[in-house]
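Reviewers of the previous submission asked for a worked example of the structure-prediction workflow described in the proposal, so we include one complete record here. The input consisted solely of the amino acid sequence. No template or homolog information was supplied to the procedure at any stage.
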Amino acid sequence: MQNLYRGRVGVTLHRAHAPVTSPALADVGRALLHRAGDTPSLSHSLLRNDVPSAFECQTEHDKNHKLCCTGEENWVDSRTVYIGHKEPPSGTEAYIPQRFPDNRIISSKLIIDTPTSPMTSGLPLFFVITVTAIKQGYEDWIRHKADNAINQCPVHAIQHGKVIRKQSQKLRTYYAVQDTKAFTTAEEFDTLHSTIECEQPQPDLYKYVGRINIYLDRDEPIARPLGSENLLLRGATLKNTEFIYAVAIYTGMESKMALNYQSKSQKRSAVEKSMNAYLIVYLCILISKALINTFLKYVWQADPNRDEPWYNQKTENERQRHVLIRAFTDFLAYMVLFNYIIPVSMYVTVEMQKFLGSYFIQWDDDMFDEEIGERPLVNTSDLNEELGQVEYVFTDKTGTLTENNMELKECCVDGHVYVPHAICNGQILPGAVGMDMDMIDSSPGVDGKEREELFFRALCLCHTVQVKEEETVDGIKRGIHQGKSTSSYISSSPDEVALVEGMQRLGFTYLRLKDSHMEILNREDEMERFELLEVLNFDSVRRRMSVIVRSNTGEYYMFCKGADSSIFPRVVSGKVEQVRARVEHNAVEGLRTLCVAYKKLSHVEYEDVCRLLNCAKLALQDRDKKLAEAYDVIEKDFILLGATAVEDRLQDKAADTIESLHKAGMKVWVLTGDKMETAAATCYASKLFHRSTQILELTTKRTEEQSLHDVLFDLSRTVLRQHGSMTRDTFSGLSGDCQDYGLIIDGATLSAILKPNQEGNRNGGNYKEIFLEICRNCSAVLCCRMAPLQKAQIVKMIKTSKEHPITLAIGDGANDVSMILEAHVGIGIMGKEGRQAARNSDYAITKFKHLKKMLLVHGHYYYIRIAELVQYFFYKNVCFIFPQFLYQFFCGFSQQPLYDTAYLTLYNISFTSLPILLYSLMEQHINMDILKRDPSLYRDIAKNSLLRWPTFIYWTFLGLFDATVFFFGAFFLFDNATFTSNGQMFGNWTFGTLVFTVLVFTVTLKLALDTHYWTWINHFVIWGSLLFYVIFSLLWGGIIWPFLNYQRMYYVFMQMLSSGPAWLSIILLIIVSLLPDVLKKVFCRAMWPTTTEKIQNADKLYKGHLSEFTPLSSLHAPPARKHNRRGEESQNPAHRRSDSSRPKKMMYAYWGGRRDYRTFSSFLRIGENPRFSGAAYAYTAPGPETSV
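From that input alone, the workflow returned the following C-alpha cells.
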C-alpha cells in the first residue's frame, strides 16, 4: 500500500492485502470492509503538503504512534457514508446523503505569473470604477429626487374664492368653437354629432390647420375653422375656467410637445476627449515598451550562457514550450510591469475634483438670489471645465434676458405725448418731478379730444388680454379700478398687458370680455360695450393685428396696431410725420414702439370682410397663404391715430453680461419664439445689437419678395465684401476696423434652409453652408418665431460645424429644454415659467447676470486647474515608469521590478495624489476680481489651448528627461557600490528606493513651483505628503511585518539615509531635474510673457491690489516694436507727444524684462512728499489712458 492516491473518499469491498485497482479512491484514509474474523486494519495514507486533509491515519506498525487519528481531541463533526446509496433502517438516524467533491485534477494557474502582485495592478482600477460609479450614482439620485418632487407634488385648486397657490401671469388665450359653446354638460355633449378634419402631427407649436363639421338636423354639416387658438397643448393649465370639454387630437409621442422633445445624451467635455486621446498615445507607448523589451530579451538570451545559466536551469516543460508562446507570455508580463504608465488614478482624481469643485459654484454668495432664496445648482459636475471653453452662447429672451415685466412709458396721439402718471392732456401731473420734458407738446385742445379718446379705446379693444377676476396673487389683491372688482390682466404677450394697464392709468379701463362683448370704463366711470366680431391675429410676416368691433350705436370699427413699417404704408390720413418723429425718437431710446390706426366700416363692407375671412379659414390646404391674402385686402386705407412706447425691463446687468461675453470672444445668439420686432428691441436694449450694427434680415417677408437662393447669396456677398475670406472669428468683435453685422432670421426661413433637398437651387450650392458662413461673419444673431425643436436644430448645426465650437444654451422655460439638452453645456434659469428647464439642465442659476461669473471666473478656474491636473498626471507617470523601462537593460530583461510593491501601489494613491487634487481645487493663477474686470483673459484659454499637442509633448519629454536623470544619476553615483561607512554594499532594492525617493520629491516640488495661490492648506498637503512618504518608508522598512511572505525592504530605507553620499545624491538629482523647467519658465516669462504672466507680475508688484487701481488694458501684450541696428527699441510716437496741460505721472516698471513706460492721467494721487510710501497711493476713478 505504498501508492499515493488523490481523490474523494472511497470504499473498497476487498481484503486489506488486496491490490488497489482504481486510482480514483481516496487518499484521505480508505476504510476497508472485511469478512468475519479478519482483523481490521487501516491502509497507509500519505498527503502532499499542499492538499488539505480531513484527518491523517497511519498503520498499527508505525513507530511511536497509536491506532488513532491525529487531531481527534478536537473532533467536532463526523461523516456517514451509505453504501450503494441505500437508506438505513427506519428509526436509526436521518438519511442525509453525502456530497463528494469532483475528482478532476487542476494544476494550472488562473493568472499569468506576473512580476508584480495582482493586487498592486488591480486595486487602483477597482478604486477608479468604484469612485466613478458612486459619483455618477449620487448625481442621478439628485435628479431622481428632483423628478419625484414634481411627479408627486399635490394639486392645488381655487375653492370658495380662495387662491391657495401662486398663479402665472403669462397666459395664452384659447377659444371654443362658437357652435359648441352651448354644450355645458356631459349629457349634452353626448348628443353632439360632428367630425374633425386636421393635418397630421407636426412639431410647429404655433400652427394648426383643421376644420370641424357639425351635423345638425339638416343633411349638410356646418363647417367651422380650427386654428392654433383652438388647440390646447399638452401640459397646459386652465386659468380662467373651472373645467372644459375637449377632443383629443394628438396623443402620446404624436403630441406637439412630444415631437419637440430632445433625447438626452451623455455629454463629454473637450478636456475628457483630450484625456482619452492622450491615453491612446500612452497605450501605444506601453505596447511599444513591451514589444521592445520582449524583442531585446530574446536577443539577450541568444547566448546559451545567458538563456540558461548554471544557477537557473530550465525545466523540461519550459524547454519544450514553443518560442512564440514564451514570447507572448513575456510580452504580457512586460505589459503588466509597465502598465503604471497609464494614469488610471487620474480618472479618480478628475472625478473627485469635478465633484468637490462643483460646490464652489453652489457656495458662491455672489450668485445667491435673496429675492427667491435660491443658490445655483449643479446637476452635472462632469462639465465644469467646459464652462471655460464656451464659444457660442444661445439664450432665450423672455424670462432669461428680460424680467418679463413690461411697462408703458408713453404714447403719442397726433404728435401730443401722454405719459402715464406724469402727463395727460398736455398737463404735468403731480409726482412727475425730474422727468425730461423735451418734445412734450401742449394740450391737444377740444378738436383733438375725440381722437385722443378713440386712441385710448383702440388700445383697450385691440388685444387678446384676459381678465382674472377676484384673484389673490402672493396674498395681495390686485384691483383694476378702485371700488370695483379686484382683478388682474393676463396675456400671452406681456406688452399687451402693459398697454392695457397704461390705458387704465390714463383713465380708460378694460373690464372684461363677456358673451362676445368687450367692456371698458371711460374717464367718466361710464361702461361702454363693444361686440367683438373678428380678430385678425398677429403674425411675424404682417407684423400687426386687427380687431373688428361694433359699438352700442351700431357703428363698425376696425382697429389695427403693429410695427411702424407695417402701419405707415397702409395709412391714408393722419399726422404721419409728427408720429413718425416720435417713433424714431423712442426707437433710439431702446423702447418698443407700436403704431395705432383705425377705419370705419359700413355694414356691406363688414359682410364682405366676413365672407372673405370665412372662405380662407375653412381651407385645409394653403390656409396661411389664403389668410395672408385676405388680411392684405382687408387691412388698408387706415387713419393714423398715434403710437406707443413700451419698455421691456431687462434683467439686472443683462446688458453688461452680454457685453462681457462679447469681449471674452463668445458669440451670443438669441433664440426666441417672440415676434421679430419685440426680440429686436430687446437685442438693442441688451447691447446684443448696437446702433452701428448693420442688420441683415433673412425672414419670410424677404423670401417672398426674392427667392431664398438669391437672398442668401446677397447676404453672403454683403458680409464678405469687406472681410474677404476672413471670418468674424479673426476680429475681436470690438474693433472699429470692420463693420458689425447682425442677422435676424425667423423659424419658417430656417426650416427652408435646413431642408435636406433644396428646390430651386440653381447653382447646386448648400444653403446650410452659406447660412453658416453668413453667421460666422456676424457679431450677433437673432432667431425669432422659433419652435423648441428648431432651437435645438440651430444649436446642433453650430455644434457639428467644421470648427466644432463649444456651445452653451440658457433658458427658463419648458420650450428651452431641447436646446439645453443639445448644447455642450445647458443652463436653466429658475424663473417664473417653472423649473423644467432647471431640472433638465447641467447647471441652474437664478439670474442671467450670474452667467458672467460662472463663465469668466469659475469656468476659467476650472479649466486652468484640470488642464494642469491632466498634464501633471501624465508627466509624473512617465517619471515613475520610465526608470523601470531603463532598469530592464541592466537586469537582463528579467522583468525584475525596480520599486517595491508598496511603492508601486501607493505612488498614485497616497504619495502624489493629494497635492495635485488640492491644486485642482484651490489654484487661482489670477485674482478673481481681475478676471471679472477683464473678460478678454477668457480668450487666453479658448479652444482648449492648455491641452494642445505641443503642450502635451512638452510635458511628456519633461517627464522623460527627469526620469533619465533619476535613473542614470543614481546609477553613476552607485558606480562605487560601497556607500556605507562599514563597507556594506547597496543592493537593487536600495537603488530602487533611492530612485523612488528622488522621484517623489521631484514631482511634488514641481507642483509646488507651478502653484501661484498659496494657502496654509497647500503648505500642509504638499509638505505633509513628503513627510508622509518618509514616515511610511521608515515604518515599512523598520518593522518585520508578519503578514508578508518576504522582508526584502527590511532596513533598506534607514540604511540609505545613513549614507552621506545618498543624501547628496538625492539633493543633487532633485535640483538637476527641476532646473531645466525652472530656466524655461524664467526665460519665457522674461522674453515672451503672456498676458496672464504680466498680470501676475503686476499683481505681485502691487501686493495683491492690482484690481483696485491698475488699468488692465495696459497689461496686455503690446504690438511688436521695430528695432534699430543697435538693438534698441524705436521710439513710440506716443512718447514723443508733448505733455498736456494736466500734470501726468510717469510710472516705470519692468514688463517682461524690458523697460516699459505707462502714462496715467488723473489716476494716482501722490502726496506732496516726493519720498512717498505705498500708503500714499489713494484710489480715484480712472482717467483717460495714454496709449503705449
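The radius of gyration is 42 Å. We consider this example representative of the routine output the project will generate in years two and three.
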